[in-house]
Write a structure and sequence with these properties.
This protein is an alpha/beta fold and about 325 residues long. About 30% of the residues lie in helices and about 25% in strands. Helix 1 crosses helix 2. The chain starts with 5 loop residues before the first helix and ends with a strand.
Length: about 325
Amino acid sequence: MTTPNPDKQIMFKNRLLKVWKHISKLAKRQNIACFRFYDHDLPEFPFAIEWLNGDVHAAEYKRRHGMEDEEHELWLAACKQTIAEVIEADPERIFMKIRQRKAGRQGQYEKFNDEKEEKVERIVPEGGLNFIINLTDYLDTGLFLDHRITRGMVRDEAKGKNVLNLFCYTGSFSVYAASGGAASVTSVDLSKTYINWAKRNMQYNKLYKDTQHDFIHGDVMEWLDYMPKDTYDIIVCDPPTFSNSKRMEDTFDVQRDHVMLLKKLLKGCTEYGKIYFSNNYRDFVLDRDSIPAATVKDITAQTTPFDFQGKLHRKCYMIQK
């Protein structure tokens, strides 16, 4: 059996040392406890590695590596040891996963842990708030770090506003909006697991009020057909690239269907309502001319955190009625 190539591990270690020193210093200066410090920097080591207030989440993008299963396990163990040495962390606090590149968000809703491991949850701080993350059960931890700046923008604008969070995942935008004094926050997601998680996040931050915060388990595309018109001052919408739906020939494709989606959202906006629309499709092109809005602005650059500079695939737009 082939053992992990020590020269390649040295190369990996040197790269990690460089990015960890630079990004962790920036994070400390800005009092940021959760950040990504490596994202497929070297082709031979296709990981997305995040520091989560003392724990590390390292997701390997699945690819054809040519290794047998046992050999791959040895390689992963060597990579884990290298990461531990660089950041001077206990290997037991480094959680390794294999991430399948998928169209859409199917993986986000699938259970990752096969119940052999004990579930590991942590509470991590961001922006003066706290969020529940899960390091074992799913491909993602429950907190998308690349939306950190956008979340802050929503909080800054939320006071007295009615906020709608679609495809809300674990509700981090909802928590930020509530902490900013939103008059109401409505969160909608297809997954009951994530809707419950979003509510737990709101409750953990002691912000939940049943008269102001509504958590809806349902298909967003169906729910939009019954969405109240002229109601929301801020809408956050971060749809999957592709997903199955009971609408539109049983599929949703963000490139094909974003104009239809945004037209529906604009109907739900108040007179001067604002939409924060984002998606993770690398080749996405916004059809500006087909969107009946007063303002359509690409804000990707200003909402990209320092730890995602040059690596972020998510596009972000501000659309105002």
